[in-house]
Structure formats: C-alpha cells, structure tokens
Amino acid sequence: MITKEKLEGETLKVIEKLxxxxxxxxxxxxxxxxxxxxxxxxxxLPEKHGISLLHNLDEMTIASMMQKINTMxxxxxxxxxxxxxxxxxxxxxxxxxxxxxxxxxPQVQLTKFLEEMDETNASxxxxxIDYPEDTAxxxxxxxxxxxxxxxxxxxxxxxxxxxxxxLKGNNHLYLIDKKGVLTGTVSYKDLxxxxxxxxxKNIMLEQVICVTVSTKRENIVRLLxxxxxxxxxxxxxxxxxxxxxxxxxxxxxxxxxxSDDYGKFSTASKEIDFKTKPIIAAVRRLPxxxxxxxxxxxxxxxxxxxxxxLEKVVALAFFxxxxxxxxxxxxxxxxxxxxxxxxxxxxxxxxxxxxxxREFWVxxxxxxxxxxxxxxxxxxxxxxxxxxxxxxxxxxxxxILGTMAGTIIPIILYKCKLDPAVASGPLITTVxxxxxxxxxxxxASLLLS
Length: 449
Fold this sequence. Notes:
- The chain contains 22 helices and 6 strands.
- The chain has a 3-stranded mixed sheet with strand order 1-2-3. Strands 4-5-6 form a 3-stranded mixed sheet.
- Helix 12 links the parallel strand 1 and strand 2.
- Helix 15 packs across helix 16 and helix 17 runs parallel beside helix 22.
- GO terms for molecular function: magnesium ion transmembrane transporter activity; metal ion binding.
- Belongs to the SLC41A transporter family.
- Acts as a magnesium transporter.
C-alpha cells in the first residue's frame, strides 16, 4: 500500500527523472508498480509534469494506469497525449473498459479509432457501445476461450495454450455447438485430469449459470451474492455465447450498485465525488432539495391549522421534534431492510404479504414500547395525564404509520419497475413528518378540547 510519505518520495523521483530526461528509467519504474499505485502517483503530479510524464510513458503503461481512474480522467488523459498515441492506448484496453470510455468519446475521434481497428474487434466494440451502461452487455469482455463441444481434451489444451496470454480471469473453458450456442463448461483442472482423446461433451458441466446481454446490473449483483463465480458467461437472446463478465468486473458492479443506491438514499447524485467543483455539486443536489423544501412547507401549514390547540397547551410544542424524528427514523429503518431484501431476493405476492405483516408486528412492539415510555416521561415532566396520553398515543400511531410507509412505498415502486431506493431517507422522512404532525395534533385536539 502506498503511504503519504512514500507517495511524496515517488512523486519527487518522477519529477527528477523528467528533469534529467531519464525516460527509460521512468518507464521501468512505472512498469514495476501496480495500476492503482501508478494512477495515484500520476494524479499527485503538478499538471505540467503530468503532461510530460504521459508523453514519455509507453502506451502499455498508460493503458494499465487507466484501469484505476474514472472516465472523465481517462478522457482528459487521452486529450493530453494526442489522437495518434491515444488510439494506440485505446487499442490496448480491455473491451468492457474501452466501450464505457468510447460512449463519452468525441464522435469524430471515435469514428477514426474504429476505422483503424480490425473489422472483427470494431464490430464487437460497436455492438457493446449500444448496450445500456447498467446491463451485462456493457460489462462483458471478449477475452475468453470457447470451443465446440465435440472437440477432444487435447484440442482444448492446445487452444488454451495458444491463447493463454489473451485470457482474463477465468478458470473455465466454454463449450458451444456449431451455431455458437453455449452448451456447457469445463474447468482447466478437469482438462488436465482427463484422457487427451476424451470428448469434451462427455466431461462438461451442462448446468451453466449465465446471463443475457440485457440482464440488469442489479440482477448480476444478486447472482454474485448467491453463487461463487470466477466469471459469468453472457449470451444473446438466442443463447449464443457473446462474452464473459470477469470476477473483478462483477465486484466493480457490486460496488457501483451499492454506491448508486447510497446516492439515491441521500438524494445526492452519483456523479458527485471529492473532486467535483462546488457549483456543479450544488446544482446536482438542488433539484431534490427544492422538491423536499416545498413538501416541507406542508408541515408548516399543518401546524398553522392547529395554532389554537398549541396556544391552549404550549407543552405540545416540546414533543413535536420528537414525534416527527422518531417517525422518520423508523420509516428509514424499514426502508433499509426492504431495499436490502429486494436487492438480494426475488419476491412474490406471498413474500410481500409476509413482509408487510412482519413489519406491522414490529411496529406494534416498537410503538407500544416507545409510546408507553414517552407517556410516563410527559406525565412526570409536565404533570398532565392528558398530555402524556396525547404524546404516547400519537407516537404509538405514527411509529406504525412510519414503519408501514417505509415498507410499502419501496415495494410499490419495485412492482412498478422503478428503483425502490428512490423512496429514500429525506423523502420518507418528509412524508412521515406530515403523517406524524396530522396524527399528533388531531389526537391533541380531540383529547385536550
């Protein structure tokens, strides 16, 4: 792991070698490092030294370094090294990284780059560019080995040897029929232990878990959680093998899915990171906050409707933040449970009713416990039994409402083919604030009149 002190030392070394024009030593220094460490050192350099470094590093090293930086940084890097060198770097990138980058690439340069590629790879890349970013088609690579299932073990071993340097992160050989349809897999271990003249179809595993090019990223993540994959084959709608998702891409998809869901929970854009400029970050956050601001005004209008009740019993105001806060908290807890459950499991009508019933009983237990406690506290503090009943009864009901809202709203969105994470923290909290205030002041008006 590269520490802050080590990074400073490495950065100074790079600047020194650039000044002394020791470019061969510079390339050797970078080749010995991992892609992440390379990217960290590059990003720590002043801009003029960073540009100089890019112009003097070989294409393979730059391509390796680009694996660990985001898309915008990749585009900036390619812009600094010029179109000719940029095309050579692009040609060395893995297909799944390449296609994500080319989706943001200027159209003129994209056309020129594809024209310079060989016809087979250009056709594959063009096809991948058309797949949405959150599908298997955009995550797959063509760096796998497939062979017809009527071939022998010896044929498979010879083909694997010839393409060994081409492979990426997989312990299996994919078997296909004459039409290219995926029929099974064979592990390299089984190849080594089998008779060289044995037919592959006699030793293959026929029950293959695979996905289609249109499979959503969230479903790929769900499969990853359930099974131990080193790679996941991808087919088209006819079952023809067209690609493979490597383990590192699946882990990246898992992290991205988690990051996206967290962004939705906080209603913050996934495009905001540590380096985003303040004005851009503010513009990306504002829409949701403005919407919530206007929804929040409803809470103020509710309080104004019960102004008379507040004037009669000023102590009611003491418990307003508590009632609203507790309702929002329990709603967010239920929301988190449901969204996590939806991400990990397929649900049917029976499972939905079971979940709602479970959360209802949970809300009864939580509501009863918290309602009784706050009733006693309100009575002792203010010496008013009716106030204790109002506060305790209101908290009991609002905790049930909040829990049910946090359970039912994401399920409804999920069934409507919408992402349940959008029913997230601030939105659920704001809606529950409205529920809690209406319940609180309605009970107060009835009992304290």
